[in-house]
Specification:
This protein is an alpha+beta fold. It folds into 3 domains: 14-148, MutS, DNA mismatch repair protein, domain I, CATH 3.40.1170.60; 173-230, Orthogonal Bundle (DNA polymerase, domain 1); 247-345, Dna Ligase, domain 1. 36% of the residues lie in helices and 22% in strands. It contains 13 helices and 12 strands. It has helices spanning 17-25, 51-54, 64-70, 81-96, 124-139, 151-158, 174-180, 191-199, 205-209, 213-220, 223-230, 261-281, 314-325, and strands at residues 9-14, 34-36, 48-49, 75-77, 102-106, 109-113, 143-148, 166-168, 247-258, 286-295, 300-311, 335-345. The protein has a 5-stranded mixed beta sheet with strand order 5-6-1-7-8. It has a 4-stranded antiparallel beta sheet with strand order 9-12-10-11, with helices on one face. Strands 3-2-4 form a 3-stranded mixed beta sheet. Strand 10 and strand 11 form a beta hairpin. Helix 4 (81-96) packs antiparallel against helix 5, helix 10 packs across helix 11 and helix 12 (261-281) runs antiparallel to helix 13 (314-325).
């Protein structure tokens, strides 16, 4: 029998992407503790943090109010998502010079399978070096890369030498690498899981490997199987170039906390119009409407409802969202973010949208 094929996977992660684009385009921000998103008054959430401000403990998804406390002299700028999207497209075009198997995770990171590649180069490490060099040449930005035989290890490797770094985890090195890794450094192990694992005496990969799959499932549910596999360097997920879009949504963080119900109803109607426009352009519709509410104290709740038929009309989406609003405390409590998402979309087996059929009588 032939040996199982070893894949060559690269994970590319742009370094502090949004913040780096701002520092590239505006020299006055270079070397400064820069925060993209939020405001100096503590409104909103950090979308990105430059390496200069990360030294103070500031990171993306942090409430701006906490970021201000950690670094009072931080410089805040508004995000320019259209610019970031254009740069991201430039980077993606570089990826496609080497392989068609590109799985974007977001604007600033992606997996590439270069087991077979367009330039016939057998070394994934050399390909990663070429990609990083081209990114720097074409965008004047830096990227970090991880190279390994599966997605999990490639993701772990890309974090090892950030920023502007490259790391490789060979098959024969994986076991020793994972054994020494602190449990909180495993991708997918969040703060709550890390705390629980430490209570169970699991402080690193070596400790985790001692646990049986049955015992891990008993403690962590289905995710226990995932922990059992990854600590052994097992990850059979393929790089999927045609990612299925599972939802269409819009949300907005307000510069002021809002409790005016009339204003909120109007805003939800505007949001529904934007979502309906996107769905119209993609010939899409959905059966499930989800309302997202973030209160002034950052507590976030969602409310959903599903229909037996597809919705693509702005008025229907808006009215559903407004009805869901009644299941929240909006009005009694101020809100800082509202969002609507349509899911359970009309997808065919390949992940593309089906054209809706409208019966005529």
């Amino acid at each position: 029998m032939s040996e199982p094929r070893i894949h060559k996977i690269i994970h590319i992660d742009m370094d502090a992407f949004y913040a780096s684009v701002e520092q590239r385009d505006f020299p006055e921000y270079r070397g400064k503790p820069l925060i993209v998103g939020g405001s100096p008054e503590g409104r909103g959430v950090v979308a990105a943090a430059s390496y200069e401000v990360r030294k103070y403990g500031v990171h993306s998804a942090m409430p701006a109010a906490k970021a201000v406390r950690l670094c009072p002299h931080a410089v805040f700028v508004k995000p320019r998502f259209e610019v970031y999207k254009k740069v991201s497209q430039q980077i993606r075009e570089i990826f496609f010079q080497f392989t068609d198997l590109v799985e974007p995770l977001s604007l600033d990171e992606a997996y590439l399978d270069v087991t077979e590649n367009h330039i016939g180069l057998p070394s994934a490490t050399l390909i990663a070096q070429k990609i990083r060099s081209l990114i720097r040449e074409k965008t004047n930005l830096t990227a970090s890369a991880g190279v390994a035989y599966n997605k999990f290890l490639a993701k772990m490797a890309s974090d090892l030498n950030k920023p502007d770094g490259l790391a490789v985890i060979l098959p024969e090195e994986a076991e020793a690498f994972l054994a020494e890794l602190p449990i909180g450094a495993f991708h997918g192990v969040g703060d709550a899981t890390e705390a629980k694992m430490k209570r169970l005496g699991i402080t690193n990969g070596r400790d985790l490997r001692k646990w049986s799959e049955i015992d891990l499932v008993e403690q962590f549910g289905k995710t226990g199987r995932h922990y059992y596999r990854i600590v052994r360097g097992i990850d059979h997920r393929k790089v999927k170039p045609d990612r299925i879009r599972k939802s269409i949504g819009k949300e907005r963080t307000f510069s002021e906390d809002i409790d005016d119900l009339s204003w909120i109803h109007n805003f939800l109607s505007e949001l529904a119009e934007k979502i309906a426009d996107v769905m119209k352009n993609k010939h899409a519709a959905g059966k499930t409407v989800t309302l997202k509410v973030r209160y002034a104290d950052f507590e976030t709740v969602t409310r959903s409802t599903s229909f037996s038929h597809y919705l693509d009309n702005a008025n229907d989406i808006a009215q559903t969202a407004i009805q869901l609003l009644e299941e929240t405390k909006v009005g009694d409590r101020k809100v800082r973010l509202l969002g609507i998402t349509m899911s359970n979309l009309n997808l065919n087996e390949r992940g593309h949208f089906k054209q809706l059929e409208i019966p005529f009588e």
